[in-house]
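Quick illustration for those who missed Monday's session on complexes.
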Amino acid sequence: MSITLKTKEEIDILREGGKLLALVLEQVAAAVAPGVSTWELDALAERLIVESGGIPSFKGYRVTGIRTPYPATMCISVNDEVVHAIPRKDKILAEGDVVSLDIGMWYKKLCTDMAITVGVGKVTAETERMIAAAKESLDLGIAAVRPGAHVGDIGHAVEERLKKDRLGIVRDLAGHGVGYELHEDPFIPNFGSPGTGPELKEGMVIAIEPMATLGTWRVILADDDWTYKTADHSLAAHFEHTLAVTKTGAEVLTRV
Ligand code: MG
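Prediction with magnesium ion bound:
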């Protein structure tokens, strides 16, 4: 589909839904602990979304070429899993694990999408640094957003920050337009050259989502058809916000 622009009223709804989603994710993140299964976190997320008046947007999502629709509310990716890992009862978190919590919600017929990465208990200094750099790269990507800037400016800002820590920058997966659908145009890579790619315009709503690794940028798709893992089994981190392009910059919509 082509790039869409949202009205002020639609952005008001996305802000309302985004805030509720951020509150849900905050509570799910607080439940992360050694001994907890990713299935339990997913069940909590689903209950909180429904209580918020929303509908999980990942559940039932279909991707061309993949046999099964996505079966859960969240993607909960642990250690070398980069994104899209399916929650499981037998996937029990342990001290030192790195967990990416990715969640999306329909609210009043519009959807927002966000992700954070947290350590389980104490993680290594190297892991902490990767998580901090990935988070900061998202902030810098968002700071590059304004009308007249280009998608390549976002990717460039993210890439420069991750390169500083010599992290792998996942290239096969990217940010995207969002709102009417879970994935809309434009495609927003986490690398790029300034001034290239589609131009950003006021009213666009996009999800920026850097994915960084402690090793290679290469990812492999697991046998479940959904989970992306690092090809060298290095640890990965993933952060995401949904934001609206405003008259002067960006407004993060998935914020508590
Ligand atoms: Mg996304």
